[in-house]
Write a structure and sequence with these properties.
By secondary structure, the protein is of the alpha+beta class. Helices cover about 45% and strands about 10% of the residues. The chain has four helices and three strands, in the order H-E-H-H-E-E-H. The protein has helices spanning about 5-30, 45-50, 55-65, 90-100; strands at about 40-45, 70-75, 85-90. It has a three-stranded antiparallel sheet. Helix 1 packs across helix 3 and helix 2 crosses helix 3 (about 55-65). The longest helix has 26 residues, at about 5-30. The chain is globular. The chain starts with a helix and ends in a 14-residue tail after the last helix.
Length: about 110
């Protein structure tokens, strides 16, 4: 298998591994509410606790989320401690353009 193909397949597997936690982070922004949240200020420790996940899994999911065009993180998750306070922001216009909406409750039917 060519190195480029192997690297791409590894990247896909990595994203899929953390996708459930990424979706849990997205749910914290309440995308289906009439007034969704635009920004969260938190720490890895607090976010992990809120998600019921460990800090390393939360860090990896946050890194995956930050690679998307609709979410930004104020600092590189791989560079800060679990107590560092940071911000996660969503651009709802980009979110809406990049997601397929069928009017489902995200808690019951996560959108990839």
């Amino acid at each position: 298998m060519p190195a480029g193909v192997a690297h791409e397949e590894d990247a896909v597997r990595w994203r899929l591994l953390y996708e459930p936690v990424v979706q849990d982070i997205i749910r914290l922004f309440k995308p289906n509410d009439p007034h969704p949240v635009d920004m969260l200020r938190t720490s890895l420790q607090r976010l992990a606790r809120d998600l019921g996940a460990d800090v390393d899994t939360t860090r990896a999911a946050l890194t995956a989320l930050a690679q998307r065009e609709d979410f930004t993180v104020s600092a590189d998750p791989d560079q800060f401690t679990e107590y560092h306070v940071f911000e996660i922001r969503v651009d709802w216009d980009v979110f809406a353009r990049s997601r397929i909406s069928v009017g489902l409750d995200l808690q019951e039917h996560p959108v990839p």
